[in-house]
Design goal:
By secondary structure, this protein is α/β, with parallel strands linked by helices. The chain is 39% helix and 17% strand. Helix 1 crosses helix 4 (99-113) and helix 2 packs parallel to helix 5 (122-136).
Length: 446
Amino acid sequence: MTMRQAATRANDAARFLADLGEVRRKPGLERVRFLMHLFGLPHQEFRCVHVAGTNGKGSTSAMIASVLAREGLAVGLYTSPHLVSLRERIQVSGEFISSDMLTKLIEEVHRLTKGEDDPPSFFEVVTACALKHFSNTNVDIAVLETGLGGRLDATNIVEPEVAVLTSLSIDHESWLGRSLYEIAGEKAGIIKPGIPVVSCWSGPEERAVLEEKCARVHAPLRLLDRDFHVELIRPWVDGAPAVISYSGPRWRFDSIRLPLFGLHQVQNAALAIAGLEVLAERGFEISEAGVNDGMASVKWPGRLEMIQGEPGLILDGAHNPEAVKALAETIPFLSYHGDRERRILLFAASCDKDTRAMLSKLSPFFSTLVATSFGGERAGKVEDLAGNGNEFFNRVVAEEDTAKALERARKLAGPNGLVVAAGSLFLVGAIKKIIQEKPEDPYIFQ
């Protein structure tokens, strides 16, 4: 096959996905179960970890996968959304699925489902491709992050070794509910009979949901600050990793290096290690060196990711009030934190977000807001962002074009300043494409 033919096939597959992404499907697991039967039930051919939550589930998944890979296992990792390439969502031992393989799997789904009255959704197709790829490559274990919710998420067809539930906050209310109690019920939908659960849920509403569900299905429950504990021993200094300690039913670690930046990552690290501890009890050989090396080498782009340069640039996908709170708590650890006038917030968000609440939490740390957009129907209006920003910031600049907004923010910060881009992973992805000079294609397979 020539490169031109391969590119044509990839473009056709991308168009198929794009068409699916424009149609809302009724929530349910019937379509993905049907896909799995057509594919020969690949999800039953490997063991897995299932991770759900509002914030932190991607970081936690990446930590678990990193440690398991350090132990020499073939590890699948399925996450969403992607920043630049769709291939990012499906990895085996740190390697993205190839463009050719992803194209073939999407073509196969298209062939198998053509003419169906209720075709699968975009996320269901990509999930099916991930599970089939993990089966094809004979992974020893896969770490699967839910896309939205849990109970009706396409990933919820698996029988995991352990379910990990990360922090909760109000988000996606139209799909998951408008209270923590309702959202907790959806996320707790990944809990299976007899399967151990690890969680950090501490609020009365979510804790009640969690304990009731675990008791009902006889799922052993381990809770942060009750059954396992974490402590920040040394914070991030001049780019050096933080150091944490961990204690649980089986393990004690006094000095684990944590390169992922942010106080919230301490909690995520505790959840990851507690999940690994359960895996060790269920027969996986996980050494102290594997935990230390895997945690120290984990990477998770777009989440408080520092881009070197003048001025400095930090990319963070904080997309709801809880994630913004985590970003605000981290800013004092930055070497730039003493000069508010040189810190510029570059911000864009989806149209369904409470941007006023998000901006109010960040405004004490920035002199200037540059309001922008990442394009598409989901993006909030720049003029609305700017209007909300006028309440809280000394100066507000509105610039629709992301590349021009980034350039403007950098000029305002100056060579010794800092630009923090936040509000949406879509914004982070758009900026990464600008920096890497990638085409503006949300389904790009490069």
